[in-house]
Design brief:
The chain is an alpha/beta fold. It has 15 helices and 25 strands. It has a 7-stranded mixed beta sheet. A 7-stranded mixed beta sheet has the order 11-12-13-14-15-23-24. Helix 5 runs antiparallel to helix 9 and helix 7 runs parallel beside helix 8. The structure holds zinc ion (ZN) (2 copies). The site of one zinc ion has 6 residues, from loops.
């Protein structure tokens, strides 16, 4: 009998780490970070320490203490003996941190299955991120010394390429099936607020299991989610792991509606238009791009987004050449100064940023200040200090991201409002969620019609009980305990 163990995603939105075991085969469905637990014990200036290796993560249940899944360098640093690999594969539904971030801690020989877009996004996050726990595509041996040219020991960094290991990634094509021991797993794309999102159908000798990942039915790729439901239904699953982020919300969202609103707002604006959006949601990014284009304005993107757009290639609906790249002042802030050696200016930037700052379509705050009516600018709180350089007049700010859902986000929101008030910027909002509404989830579960549904990624699992009486709702109470799939 297959069994499921939930190491996250229970009574919380995200942190999914679901272990499926069947006849000796063990796979993880997602291996994400729990924001809920992380925010309970940690904050911006109180983080799990890298020097503790896994100890800080084990202490609070951020990571499960399971033998045979973690990196040898971390285990060694904790004086734990070497372990043998104990799981067969990890299947990632998408690259959001609450589903994928903690693969950082996994052994590099564990195969990781995902879509092409998911791998590219993870790669972009690894290359552009500063988080010490973002060994996503490759892993650099931590707490390790090498013998330097002087014959002395030095600490290994990413520059010591002999100590950087590729993870064992397998990119899956739509509807591709792979055999993992006693299981067969099919990848089925879905619509979500991140490119490359998918669900999985797992076939076992005792019946099949469907995992939705994060899903919605109102985005640009809504058709994918509808096909997913059809496929899932055809598999006649015994078990369904269903997300339920918005199970308590009946409001129907629409990406098309967001596009109309943003287009309207831009058309009425006289000065600069700033848009705050989830950085890697290329659906939304394209919505803003098109809204800017309709209004004959140029879309200006930050360096990190420029990196992702280029890395995505054909998977992004437009090319990096079609937009402007905003180069912020950093370090000594020499970018806007005339007559300074290019090499000296470049020293202000990380290596990956240097790839973009000299492009023909690179602009600085000066350009935005000169012709504000020409631009729509992708902006977020972390780069808002550029407003001091721009000194915008009569600008507007469109919040195209979710409302704060924790205290820390509320404080950030307040800080942002202070900035907007200071510069006399009017704020508007236009957003559609990455998740299906309550009625849509209900319709999906009824259509797929499993024998048993396990609500995950929701704070209201009991609300699934409103569904048709034939479907048993298993509300997970025993976090980290086995659930036999009966
Ligand atoms: Zn999620
Ligand atoms: Zn997500």
């Amino acid at each position: 009998m297959p069994s499921l163990t939930f190491y996250g995603g229970v009574n919380e939105i995200g942190g999914n780490k679901i272990l499926l075991e069947a006849e000796g085969t063990k796979i993880f469905l997602d291996f994400g970070m729990s924001f809920k637990i992380a925010n309970t014990y940690f904050a911006e200036f109180l983080n799990p320490r890298k020097c503790s290796a896994l100890a800080d993560f084990f202490e609070f249940g951020l990571l499960p203490d399971i033998k045979g899944i973690y990196r040898a360098d971390y285990l060694k640093h904790m004086d734990r003996p070497e372990e043998e690999k104990s799981i067969d594969a990890v299947f990632l539904t998408h690259a959001h941190a609450d589903h994928a971030q903690y693969i950082h801690f996994l052994r590099t020989d564990i195969p990781i299955y995902c879509t092409k877009a998911t791998k590219i996004i993870l790669q972009s996050m690894e290359e552009t991120g500063r988080n010490p726990f973002s060994d996503l595509i490759t892993a650099c041996d931590a707490f390790t010394f090498y013998t330097n040219k002087k014959g002395r020991f030095s600490r290994v960094t990413r520059k010591n390429t002999d100590f950087v290991h590729e993870r064992n990634f397998h990119v899956m094509e739509p509807e591709e099936k792979v055999k993992i021991g006693s299981l067969e797993v099919e990848m089925v794309p879905v619509d979500h607020s991140l490119p490359g999102a998918c669900g999985y159908i797992v076939f076992s000798a005792e019946g099949s299991l469907v995992y939705t990942g994060d899903i919605r039915f109102h985005g640009t790729n809504a058709e994918l989610s509808k096909k997913f439901v059809e496929k899932a239904k055809a598999a006649e699953p015994k078990w369904l792991l269903s997300e339920g982020t918005r199970i308590d919300n009946a409001e129907k969202d629409s990406e098309e509606g967001v596009k109309n609103e943003i287009t309207q707002l831009i058309s009425r604006a006289k000065g600069l238009v700033f848009v705050e959006h989830p950085m890697r949601d290329l659906d939304r990014v394209n919505t803003i791009f098109e809204a800017a284009e309709t209004n004959k304005r140029e879309f200006v993107v930050p360096l990190k987004l420029a990196h992702l757009i280029e890395a995505m290639g054909d998977l992004c609906p437009f090319s990096l050449r079609d937009v402007k790249i905003l180069v912020p002042k950093k370090g000594w802030g020499l970018i806007d100064r005339d007559g300074i050696d290019r090499e000296l200016i470049e020293q202000d930037y990380a290596n990956w940023e240097k790839e973009f700052i000299n492009r023909e379509n690179a602009v600085t705050c000066k350009a935005l200040q000169k012709k504000p009516e020409n631009y729509v600018v992708s902006m977020n709180l972390w780069e808002i200090n550029q407003l001091t350089d721009i000194q915008p007049k009569g600008a507007i700010w469109i919040k195209s991201s979710c409302e704060p859902f924790c205290e820390e986000m509320e404080l950030d929101e307040e800080r942002k409002r202070n900035w907007l008030e200071h510069f006399g910027i009017e704020e508007y909002s236009a957003h559609a969620s990455g998740h299906a509404s309550g009625p849509e989830i209900k319709a999906m579960v009824e259509e797929i019609n499993p024998e048993r549904v396990y609500p995950v990624h929701t704070e209201h699992p009991e609300m699934f009980k409103d569904f048709s009486k034939d479907i048993h709702v298993e509300v997970i109470k025993l976090f980290r305990e086995h659930y036999l799939c009966t």
